[in-house]
Structure prediction request, 463 residues.
Amino acid sequence: MIKTIDLHKSYDKLEVLKGIDLDIHPGEVVVLVGVSGSGKSTLLRCLNFLEVAETGTITIDGRPIDRKKDDLSKVRAEVGMVFQHFNLFPHKSVLENIMEAPLIVKNENKAKAKQLALDLLEKVGLSDKADVYPSKLSGGQKQRVAIARALAMEPKALLFDEPTSALDPELVGEVLQVMKELADEGMTMVVVTHEMKFAKEVADRIIMLDEGRIIEDADPDTFFNHSTNERTKQFLEMVNV
Amino acid sequence: MPEIFIRLYDVFMSTYEGFLKAVLITLEITAIAVVLGTVFGIIFALMKISRSKILQTIANLYITIIRGTPLIVQIMFLYFGITSIVVLSNFWAGAIALGIHNGAYIAEIFRGAIQGIDRGQREASLALGMNRTQTMRRIVFPQALRRAIPPLGNQFIITLKDSSLVYLIGVSELFGRANRAAASNFMQFETFLVVGMYYLVLVLIFTWLLKLYENKLNVDGS
Prediction:
């Protein structure tokens, strides 16, 4: 589904990604973990070209993407993203936030876009908030709208960049619940998170990044209980699992 | 009643017919300058933040020259410069000069407002598959416009007052009219005090309208 070969990314002289080979299969839930600065968010942002890796190849659905020749908007339309700070459009209502991309990018007709948006709002449990502006929502509600907004483009995969890190602890659960449901429905997901419980329960694979390299790629049981990697063990001790 | 009030009253009563007509001209010039300035301002702001070095340079040049020279020089330059090539009334020469002048300041207002919009807004829009133009038009610019309204209002008030300078190229707007009235009634102090009141009232009305509009925006959306 999404595949990277030898991805390198630097900011000025600091090399953040040092050759990432990654293969994400359809329907898979992959959780990226690592200490801050390990490059996990950068990797995620490279996958939909919000950051551009200098060298290496990214293949989506078997098609290598040429970042100079290909229309990156089209690629991004197929791979949705959910951000740490939600990034809802404050000048648009909840419904308009969700309808925006289908209307503008896909030229969907209004009635159809609206119906889809209402269905998605129901899915994330916010049917009563359709006409509300984002400033009136709690963090957890904002993030659920953001997920609905990303789903409205019917993406082939969804990227989550620390989706619960900006939330008050009591609001984390409602967002994770929606993500869990998506995973159960077979959505391909790549998730950067510090929620180890979520990783344990929902992930198919856990990938540990350290200083720009993948140092472990394992199923949750192996990762949490049988890892032989010293850095992984240190990390797990740090996050108290 | 002190004599000064009587003289002020006399001046007011003897000038108001002409002054009210002149107010219309002042408002017309201001409106044209504001519309032109906003159009120029948006265009040059977008040029300045574009990826093209050439567009950036043109925008920088325009802004530097306009901000670096006095408005009165620009009015004179444009009036004598343009009217030597095309036939242009002094009214239009003045309005266009004011518009070009304003454009530079308004460009900076818009540039600041656009760049002040959180990077996450752009990223969210791009991540949804919108291209750069759609992102600017649908997501970034509408938010920037809201943010720009208070400084724009300020700039419009400055324009209203600056429009008095076009009296120097013979436009019979409010200040020009007052200047002539003062020359004929020999009550300079009273006449300029009265005309000052006219400007003050206009500015207060405008400030009030702007406040109403800002409140409406705040009610409509976040």
In short: The helical segments of chain B are 3-48, 53-68, 71-83, 90-115, 119-127, 132-162, 174-185, 188-220. The CA atoms of residues 121 and 127 of chain B lie 10 Å apart. The first helix of chain B runs from residue 3 to 48.
